[in-house]
Structure formats: structure tokens, C-alpha cells
Amino acid sequence: MYQQTTDPAKTQYNPQAATGFPVSYSSSAAYSAASSDYQPPPPQPKPIVEWSTGLCDCFSDCGNCCITCWCPCVTFGRVAEIVDRGSTSCGASGALYTLITCVIGCGCLYSCFYRSKMRQQYGLKGNGCLDCLTHCFCEQCALCQEYRELENRGFDMTIGWHGNVEQRSRGITMSTTAPTVEQGMNR
Questions:
Q1: How many domains is the chain partitioned into structurally?
Q2: What is the pLDDT of residues 38-53, one digit of tens each?
């Protein structure tokens, strides 16, 4: 087969070979080639922060707590739309959650992935295993906590992703009441 030769007389001299000794280049071409390969350092990771509310802090928002207790698909749909940044609608996410819950009885298998995705987006404390355990054993509490976290980050959960984008692009806060209308015709 192949015979390996180790005779020093038959090996060729290679000035580019790694020897372990520092080499200085006097040529400006070598310096410019080395400097053009400069890569900036990667961005620093987001610091890990605590959730703004605890898992069982449902007393601050009884309305959402009741909706989540009786119809968790609504809360999940709203959370999923914001976490997906509008790529899926609240209705589609809620319907898929309901379908998974009706077919296999474990909507938590679907919703725990959104908790992980949300944690990664906002640098929240936790890990994938805790996300799954939280959703498997405390599904409604986990959904309420995610909902409150997004509200505390400035999202109006009732208007969805596109409504929040539009609201922020206009730079005004939308009121929840209808505007007043003047009576009669005035000129």
C-alpha cells in the first residue's frame, strides 16, 4: 500500500508550516490579508431576569384568571400570537390548542414550547424541563403568568400583535372606550 517516508532529505521546506514559533511578517500584503479577516466579537447574551410575577399571583388579574380557568385556549391563543410576533393568529393557535387537548388530552405538550420560546425571547429564568413540568402540573397558572408577563412588558393582549405594532407605530395609546360624538349639526 502506501509507505510513509520520514527521510528528512526527501521532505520539502514549507515556510507556511506551523512550527510553534512566533513569526513576524514584514510584508504589508500579509498584514492587510490578516486584518481583512477580522471578525467582530459576538454580541453579549441577554442577562437572565426573573419573571415579573410569580406562578400563583393570579389575584392581581381575576378576569384573565377566570377566562383561563374555563377556556384556556383563549389565553393560550393570545400569548402565542404575541410570542410568534403575529405569524400565527390568536384564533388559529387557540383552535390548535383545543384540538390537541380534545384528541390527546394534553394541551400542555403544545403550550410548554411557547413558554420556552417566550423565555428565550425575553431572557427569563428557567429551562425546558421546568417549562414542561410547569405546564403539565399547573397549566392554568403557567398560562396566566405568561399573559401577565407580556402585559407587564407593555402589550395590550386584547388587540393582538398587529394591534400592538400599529399602536406603537402611531406613538399613542388607544383608549378602551368609544370616542364621544357631538350631537346636532354645527358649522
A1: 1
A2: 777 777 777 888 999 8
